[in-house]
TrEMBL record:
InterPro entries: Beta-prop_EIPR1-like, PEX7, WD40/YVTN_repeat-like_dom_sf, WD40_PAC1, WD40_repeat_CS, WD40_repeat_dom_sf, WD40_rpt. The gene is LOC104741510. It is found in: Cytoplasm, Cytosol; Peroxisome matrix. This is Peroxin-7. Pfam families: Beta-prop_EIPR1, WD40. The lineage of its organism: Eukaryota, Viridiplantae, Streptophyta, Embryophyta, Tracheophyta.
Length: 317
């Protein structure tokens, strides 16, 4: 399966919603603690195991996350360690990039997510305990959401309701927000330890998954959230990212500091349905292609990006 070796440590990988062979990778020097960052735009070679880099953008600080625009096929947004949010257009020559840079967050920007229904706005979450709402055509953020008491590691839009999003924080809570409301509409004390990520089910807009330092993934129904629908145990260390499949209602992918990527069917008793141990350092980024069913990608601190089909060995050529 295709593999790419980056010069820095991987943090995030995202498939393009427009081109099935294109993906973006966020990386950081020195494990994101100190140093530069780089964004790689990669192309999968048709009918071949290779991955080629079409363009790369250097940054003065770590890049923790990246997402593709849902309205412009060449535009991506990056979350930077210096508190900035940068916009790149791959259709323009590298010296013309970034085309925009927003500097509002007081600390590292840790996640970025483009609105999949409205397609005109995006969210960022930060270690400054806030979430911000942005639009491409605005010179500053539209709104800041400040309720969390610690780092907000991820904010992600509901797949069906363009005004609703969820945020996962180190304050151990999952919060549900509606941008039309003055504050959060729901607070779920999801774990006893830090939440590191969250994601919505793509087929049921009331179901979310959270992952935590406590090594577990929990699945929640916002209509009745006193008890989780499922608790998925199997990782040996903190679960860095969790992602619902865009093609199968019950399928969840996760990656962990135990260096593995796991697949889960949260509706069955033996929920762990796949484990991949191809990374040799912390596995911190995971994605599943919207355009190609079963196509997955992961990245980690071993500076590697893997792209593979579910059921295959990511290391097989």
């Amino acid at each position: 399966m295709p593999m790419f070796k980056a010069p820095f440590n991987g943090y995030s990988v995202k498939f393009s919603p427009f081109y099935e062979s294109r993906l973006a990778v966020a990386t950081a020097q020195n494990f994101g603690i100190l140093g530069n960052g780089r964004i790689h735009v990669l192309e999968l070679a048709p009918g071949a195991p290779g991955v080629t880099e079409s363009v790369a953008y250097d940054t003065a600080d770590a890049v923790y996350d990246v997402c593709w625009s849902e309205s412009h096929d060449s535009v991506l947004v990056a979350a930077i360690g210096d508190g900035s949010v940068k916009i790149y257009d791959t259709a323009l020559p590298p010296p013309s990039n970034p085309i925009r840079s927003f500097q509002e967050h007081a600390r590292e920007v840790h996640s970025v997510d483009y609105n999949p229904t409205r397609r005109d706005s995006f969210l960022t979450s930060s270690w400054d305990d806030t979430v911000k709402l942005w639009a491409m055509d605005r010179p500053a953020s539209i709104r800041t959401f400040k309720e969390h008491a610690y780092c907000v590691y991820q904010a992600t839009w509901n797949p069906k309701h363009g005004d609703v999003f969820a945020s996962a924080s180190g304050d151990c809570t999952l919060r549900i927000w509606d941008v039309r409301e003055p504050g959060s509409t729901m607070i779920i004390p999801a774990h006893d330890f830090e939440l590191l990520s969250c994601d919505w089910n793509k087929y049921d807009d009331c179901i979310l998954a959270t992952s935590s330092v406590d090594k577990t993934i929990k699945v929640w129904d916002v209509r009745s959230y006193r008890v989780p629908l499922a608790v998925l145990s199997g990782h040996g260390y903190a679960v860095k990212k969790v992602k619902f499949s865009p093609h199968r209602r019950n399928l969840i992918a996760s990656c962990s500091y135990d260096m593995t990527v796991c697949l889960w069917d949260y509706m069955v008793e033996d929920a762990l349905v796949g484990r991949y141990d191809h990374h040799t350092e912390f596995a911190v980024g995971i994605d599943m292609s919207v355009l190609v069913e079963g196509l997955m990608a992961s990245t980690g601190w071993d500076e590697l990006v893997y792209v593979w089909q579910q059921g295959m060995d990511p290391r097989a050529s």
